[in-house]
Amino acid sequence: REVAVDTVLYWNLLCLIRVGHKCAQCISTKGDNINICWSPDGNTIAVGNKEDLITWIDTRNYKTKSEMHFNYEVNEISWNNTSEYFFLTNGNGCIVILSFPELKVMETLQAHSSNCISLEFDSQGRYFATGSADALASLWDLEELVCVRSFPRLFWPVRTLSFSFDGKLLAMGSEDHHVDIALVETGEEVCKVPCNASTFCVAWHPNKYLLAFVSDDKDRHERDAVDV
């Protein structure tokens, strides 16, 4: 899927690779879209816009299931691993948890002292992590909904997070000119991956200790893959 201003585009990946097929479906939304996520069960896509309106779209019929407007800044959005709960981070430093598909507020957690930006779940269903403008990343127990530990080594807002395929490593990116990689269970630093600019996105390989990242390095067009 792809967000294009006030439109959500669905692409058939196999057709795109084989014959350069056009997008499978185009859905108009309200306002300028800024974030998007797919439910783990594959049945729903959520898209948020600049007016803090989230729209949930059924991927089986390409129709809007529901909409909800929030009276605060909405940043990252995501489901938990079972698609039972919908999480969002906001400008008040909170994590808001909604039941799904009922969309009733189940819990609001004060996670950070300033804008809570990023959100990521581990594949094992044990933890989720948040990143904030206070330059901290925090690890949360998904069952108890308590903060287990914080990672305080970055100096700029934590924009992006990614757990390794086995949930043992957490990569954190910010405006610091390196990606911090830590052991989830202890918080110990494994390594720093140097980069020459701010990091916008980090992502682990599905089954290897291989990390990809996107940075704002306009002077370099190629990077080596990072094997951790």
Description:
This protein is mainly beta. Helices cover 3% and strands 52% of the residues. The protein has 1 helix and 22 strands. The strands form 6 sheets. It has a 4-stranded antiparallel beta sheet with strand order 4-5-6-7, with no helix packed on it. It is globular. The model has no long low-confidence stretch (mean pLDDT 89).
State the gist of this model:
The chain is mainly beta and 228 residues long. It is built from one helix and 22 strands.
List keywords for this structure.
about 230 residues, 1 helix, mainly beta, four-stranded antiparallel beta sheet
* Beta strands, count: 22
Mean pLDDT rating: 89
Main sheet? Answer: 4 strands, antiparallel
Written as H for each helix and E for each strand, in order along the chain, the element string is EEHEEEEEEEEEEEEEEEEEEEE
Which outline best applies? globular
- Major sheet: arrangement of strands: 4-5-6-7
Radius of gyration using CA atoms only: 18 Å
Structural class call reads mainly beta
Fraction of residues in H or I helices = under 10%
Number of helical runs? 1
- What's the end-to-end separation, in Å? 29 Å
Detail the poorly predicted runs: none
What percentage of amino acids are in beta strands? over 45%
Oligomer: single chain
Itemize the secondary structure elements and their pairings.
Blueprint (H helix, E strand, L loop, with lengths): L1 E3 L2 E4 L2 H7 L5 E4 L4 E6 L5 E6 L3 E6 L4 E7 L4 E6 L5 E6 L3 E6 L5 E6 L5 E6 L5 E6 L4 E5 L4 E6 L8 E4 L5 E5 L4 E6 L5 E6 L4 E6 L5 E6 L10 E2 L1
Antiparallel strand pairs: 1-2, 2-3, 4-5, 5-6, 6-7, 8-9, 9-10, 10-11, 12-13, 13-14, 14-15, 16-17, 17-18, 18-19, 20-21, 21-22
